[in-house]
Amino acid sequence: MKKLPEDFIFGGATAAYQAEGATREGGKGLVAWDTFLKEQGRFLADPASDFYHRYPEDLKLCSMFGINGIRLSIAWSRIFPEGKGKVNPEGVEFYHKVLKEAKDRGIKVFVTLHHFDTPKALFDQGDFLNRDNIDAFVDYAKFCFEEYPEVEYWTTFNEIYPIATNQYLLGIFPPGIKYDLSKVIMCLHNMMVAHSRTVNLFKENGYSGQIGVVHSLETKYPASDSPEDIHAAFLDDALSIRFLLDATYKGGYSKETLEALDEICAANNASYEFPEEDFIEFEKSKDRNDYLGINHYQSHFVKAYNGENAIHHNGTGDKGTGSYKVKGIGERIYKEGLERTDWDWLIYPEGLYDLMMRIKKDYPNYKAIYITENGMGYKDTFDHGIIMDKPRIDYIRKYMSSLADAIDAGVNVKGYFLWSLMDVFSWSNGYNKRYGLFFVDFETQERYPKESAYWYKQLAETKTIL
Ligand code: BG6
């Protein structure tokens, strides 16, 4: 039995494009996903979970199930359909209504400004590879800070590393480019600059509330004790974790991070160039982040690999079909005896504990941590409204237990947001990979609490992990 703090947030997470639907309603502008998904012809993001029309019902469910926090994102293209310039009043009003409804219910809201959905007009000009779009993002953020003073917790970006790699390494996000390490590195860097500039603007203008960033941090372990595997895990970690945390908390990249980047670049015929002035922004923002949001679903065991790039994304839930081999970094392997989901995501709760302890040690200027996403994608079965999702409950219990251990060991963790509040659309997996506490019938949009929703309610009420 483990206890969580009295003032802990037991939340549920969503994102605009995955939950709202209504992609062509209310004056919303296009995002690259609209055309990318149409071209692929696998699935569309409409109606998703129709949060655009059903947010009162979803927030009511939060209240009924003891959920005292929600993570949602503003769709940039609802506010500025073209990314900048003309404002769309209907979009602006929509988020006022959502925020009011949540406030009336006493639900804390964490608002993300960018969750994978750059407006298409800006995306087509190079997304964050184009530095003009850093300015556009900062202007959009400023507009939101002034328009929504009621927001207590702002997040600049959701998951910079998956954006860069899914767009330019795996090719599963638009524009669908594979194995371009130069683009990956420049996208990571430019988005960190956009984050840093936004934090500096927020603090220098004295806006109310807190601001932070959400990073996807998946712990890396060597597949064996061999020096080659230890080095491969170091390289994978450097690109996916150290790079982002150094830029967030150290005012720039450490020597080890840059050495790793150079090695990765040499193996991939890639290069990078970081303008000097960016480091002035990093230096100013390094102690200004009020919190770090961590999305953590899995860990990776990494083996040395020097063959050709070979990544296959398991987007169907056929266990064993995923593979990840990157030249000059490593191969992420399936470790014998460890459990993984049907989408090949390794279940390894120790990874969360190790990650938190490392942040406490290596980045002691972090102020607070929220687990902003954790959860289990699962093919739920619907039996006359009864959804028994025991594997998901086991997953959450184990990860929350690791979290409680980290708190006991002195890490300042203040909340947990389960991905996802209700079933939502999954970017590269569509609708059969479900994560929600509430089952959504995507035909009728009816919501049904799963067994995990009742379990989570009890957890939120007792603050005790049994
Ligand atoms: C995170 C994202 O990467 O993982 C979410 O922030 C996403 O938007 C979630 O849905 C789960 O990923 P997936 O691919 O299983 O839907």
TrEMBL record:
Keywords: Glycosidase, Hydrolase. Pathway: Carbohydrate metabolism; lactose degradation; D-galactose 6-phosphate and beta-D-glucose from lactose 6-phosphate: step 1/1. GO terms for biological process: lactose catabolic process via tagatose-6-phosphate. The active site is at residue 373. The keyword Transmembrane helix does not apply. The keyword Hydrolase applies. It is an enzyme of class 3 (hydrolase). Its EC number is 3.2.1.85. InterPro entries: 6P-beta-galactosidase, GH, GH_1_N_CS, Glyco_hydro_1, Glyco_hydro_1_AS. It catalyses: a 6-phospho-beta-D-galactoside + H2O = D-galactose 6-phosphate + an alcohol. One of its GO terms (cellular component) is cytosol. SUPFAM superfamilies: (Trans)glycosidases. One of its GO terms (molecular function) is beta-glucosidase activity. PANTHER family: GLYCOSYL HYDROLASE, LP05116P. Belongs to the glycosyl hydrolase 1 family. This is 6-phospho-beta-galactosidase. It comes from Ileibacterium valens.
